[in-house]
Amino acid sequence: MDTQTNTPEHGFCRDCLTPQTDVVRRCARCGSPRLLRHPELYRLHLAHIDCDAFYAAVEKRDNPALKDKPVIIGGGKRGVVSTACYIARINGVRSAMPMFKALEACPQAIVIKPNMEKYAQVGRDVRQMMQELTPQVEPISIDEAFLDLAGTQRLHNMPPALVLARFITRLEKEIGITASVGLSYCKFLAKVASDFRKPRGFSVIGEAEALEFLKPQPVTMIWGVGKAFASMLERDAIRTIGQLQTMNQAELMRNYGSMGIRLYHLSRGSDARQVTRERDTKSISAETTFDQDFGNSDDLVPVLRALSEKVSERLKKADLAGRTVVLKLKTADFKTRTRNRQLNDPTRLADRIFATGLELLRKEINGTKYRLLGIGVADLCDAEKADPPDLVDIQSHKRALAEEAMDRLRNKFGRAAVETGYTFGKGHRGKPVRTGEEQEPDIRHPWERN
What we know:
Number of helices: 15
Family: Belongs to the DNA polymerase type-Y family.
Site (Substrate discrimination): 55
Largest sheet: 5 strands, mixed
Subunit structure: Monomer.
Strand content: 15-25%
Radius of gyration: 25 Å
Strand order of the largest sheet: 7-8-3-9-10
CATH topology of the largest domain: Alpha-Beta Plaits
Number of domains: 3
CATH class of the largest domain: Alpha Beta
CATH architecture of the largest domain: 2-Layer Sandwich
Domain UmuC: 46-226
CATH superfamily of the largest domain: Reverse transcriptase/Diguanylate cyclase domain
Helix content: 25-40%
Oligomer: single chain
Binding site for Mg(2+): 50, 143
Shape: globular
Structural class: alpha+beta
């Protein structure tokens, strides 16, 4: 596409990608008001793409009846909100909000349990489309990534801004979801820009405007400044990024240690981090939040077994293994306990993950009640190094063969085709179910809740 006939100030239409030859309110070709213009529009090449309300968007795509409904993705009354669509957000629902508070804020919401396998597949499809734009894609999560499109103009015959706009249009047509784009000269400001005007946003922050743009912004906009650190800055009467801009690096380091270096550079729009193609997975885990607190073996052990099988399945799919088993518990008063044990050899077997986790769990069954249980594997490596023959435990090889047979049956007939005695008859994926209690449906409508 030829962009020499117009200037960056004229920009282009985000819907039909037509360059504009004048500063107008609507596209000269299609009449759309979604025009993008910026003095540095055709010079910038570093972007952050973030899918809009990803889980909820996928569910709405697959069920058109949900299109104009408030949708919350989350689990159970004791769980938290994973994602809320923008209709639910208008009503006060936020990610990580306890489910009971979310339903108080938006009682008419439709609650859908997460389907992580489906979301992961859609995420892979989106990632593949990103990699068609540039090899420099740095995934941040299942639904967002940094992209560096430097040097790709000859490949696409258009500047990065237009490539990104074309990508978003294709995403909506082929995948059926929307995303927001932030375009800038560094990762920090690209991420900041992508949060503007969601959903379907496309925001640009140029180098010339960075200092003035950042000056009035709250310090919490800086990556790494959470509530606790913001409170520390508040005690020093520092509330805006502009105040940090008046302080020198030595002063910030003296007051805030190594974090002071970050405050100094990011407050001035200086971020030297490069887009890296791969981020090493540090651990694979699974956890569940109960609808009520549990503290005895009969309730907790089946859950541990089911979660161990889920972690094992993810390790096998990723062709990974891990040397350290990590147990996570959260008490009724929201205090987290983490216990871990390093194995002699890496594993990806549910049997070994569960056995190790069970030893750790038994030490924590002491009358304390828990609202969350999780199990994971860290210190990951290639699967070829996993589970060598054990000359001491001669039965381990037989258990490994039995697990392989179970995997084949599940792959062919589904996860429920075969279960161990730990989880059989113990509820949905091992989750405790009280007598007379029915399983929750995958989708709960407002009129179906008690």
